[in-house]
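forwarding from the other thread:

> can someone predict this with S-adenosylmethionine?

sure thing
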Amino acid sequence: MGRGKADGKPRKRLFTTVLLLAIVGALFFLYSRKSGSSSIEYGSKSLKFGGDDSAIPKTIPVCDDRLSELIPCLDRNFIYQTRLKLDLTLMEHYERHCPMPERRYNCLIPPPPGYKIPIKWPKSIDQVWRANIPHTHLATEKSDQRWMVVKGEKIVFPGGGTHFHYGADKYIASIANMLNFPNNVINNEGRLRNVFDVGCGVASFGGYLLSSDVIAMSLAPNDVHENQIQFALERGIPAYLGVLGTLRLPYPSRSFELAHCSRCRIDWLQRNGILLLELDRILRPGGYFAYSSPEAYAQDEEDRRIWKEMSALVGRMCWKIASKRNQTVIWVKPLTNDCYLKREPDTHPPLCSPSDDPDAVWGVKMKACITRYSDQMHRAKGADLAPWPARLTTPPPRLADFNYSTEMFEKNMKQPLCICKGNAAYNIPPPYFA
Ligand SMILES: C[S@@+](CC[C@H](N)C(=O)[O-])C[C@H]1O[C@@H](n2cnc3c(N)ncnc32)[C@H](O)[C@@H]1O
């Protein structure tokens, strides 16, 4: 018995050791398989390269949670840390400043905690998930103006704004009415299609234009009205972060039929009217600027002074009042160069130099001058564009400025569109737009 007992102990110990080794081995195997198949590494800021083609990253790390709202070239921390010398009065700090390569993050931006699949269009125009943009500051700040309201897990948008507490839809109809557009519909039977809304807030103005087949590009910076553009985009309304500061807007000349500013709090008189001249550049011949602001109606001394000076400036720019009612004035830009050419010599603002390319915009400083029309446009007395939606497939007259004939345009439209992806090319027959 004694021997028997003594013989059983080593066997039991051996069995326990083998079992332990097997468990540790299995755990190690499972762990190494898991980390090997993972495509992300949390919190790291470096990309892993390797394999035959070293340009293809094998893993892309996820950025730290604190970077969930990082916008690389509009990063306030970058500006503070690198002490960029920017003129705050010109709003340069709201323009793009991209980090040098060694300061760039090579990681994936994580969604905020609790992120949900966004609410689908068209419902999204009225409501978004609060978790997706966890900022409720504007709801309290602008509660009297009905920009947005927090309701449980959602943020809802009643369509209000600083200037249109009772809904952008009624305000848009009143603008159409001021311009005598048929049936008070803002699209003016397809003649008004492209709108630029400067200082847009949460972009309700642009959002409510969509049902009239009018598209607006809305612009605002990440200033005290934080996250306004994030809300606009989550709602499904085209918008971008930026500012009327020192650089030209990223659009060629004569791109929009209407520019709009409701209480955008921009000093239009600064620097010889340079910001108003930038709006003038992007407006088509006969384009409108709808302006709703105290200067247009208030009777106190300061507002009257600004109104007088603005009226004189736009007069020298050859704009005329198309309509003025209640708190809104709508100016219209001339159709030809006639008025520009009739101005007294040395009138300010001057005409831009013939060497200025009004369509060069990327990183180009704004210029305090008037962009005259090409000879073709002057003769045509306007942009001569087909109304929407025929405009999609009708040759735009401005092609003549580039010596591009209607025949060339039509021939081009008949050719299949070649889309190249990797080494493959796909021929897509016209029409390209369904
Ligand atoms: C009082 S809010 C009006 C918002 C909206 N238009 C409305 O009526 O509800 C002023 C807006 O102008 C924007 N803003 C101020 N200065 C600007 C500038 N220089 N360029 C572009 N937007 C500007 C602000 O960020 C904000 O969106």
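Residues 1-7, 28-50 have pLDDT under 50 and may be disordered. thats all i got for now
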